[in-house]
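Task 17 of the worksheet. Students: predict the tertiary structure of the chain below and write it out as structure tokens. Keep your answer in the requested format; marks are given for formatting as well as content.
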Amino acid sequence: MRKIRFSPDDYLFQEGQYLDEGTIFDWIDSLNPPNKNSKKKKYHEENPRIFSHVLEHNYLVRTKDNRVELGGIAIGIALKSEYSFSIEGNSYSTDISYDEMLSKGKEVTNSLLSRIRDIEELENVPVMVALYRENSNNAIIPGNFVAKTVVEPLSQQVQDWDSINENHVLFPSDEAQENYYDQYELMNEFTQQVQTFFQIIQVSLDEGSMKGINYGICLLIFQLNFMVNKKLWLFHNTCIA
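Model answer:
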């Protein structure tokens, strides 16, 4: 998704360099309800801590003298769909609606933008922001992106948001067989070839089309992109003891 704004033809990727762990945790605490250690169940249910995490990526551009400089950043904001808390050893959870999650994400974004612009190196670069909705704690699929926006240099306000019609589907599953039967059959055919190693598959779908695929395998870990034309690209494999 970040490639839409920061094309690999024009930008070099770099892990985030400007938001350290302490800064991120401070922002998460300050932008969530304050009394996280409250002993009142009703307080937690009415004031869930939805804002979960921030991920930063940097994008560099080459200058005429063949040096690199910061050309933009991408910020991923993770938001909970289920808030879990404990009181005196008892565990509870409360569901967070999509609308409440999305509203909180937009609110957090505006607050973060003003703080990001206070960092000198980030004042005059475009910022791409993506909102990520986490699944419940027991879900196999971790979550999916729901909205994105690009904020131009110097700006501290979002002009508009674009919805992301992305869904992550577990293969094999009843949902996959019912809603994506062709891909389900294709996956069955493929997994027969790796049945000895196969454990679990997670597929990314964008606007109903297969976009990406992750495999968990007993002896090797493969990260693959699976395209509609049935081509496979192997990014890396790692042997595990």
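Marker's comment: The helical segments are 21-30, 41-46, 98-117, 174-179, 181-193. Residues 98-117 form the longest helix (20 residues).
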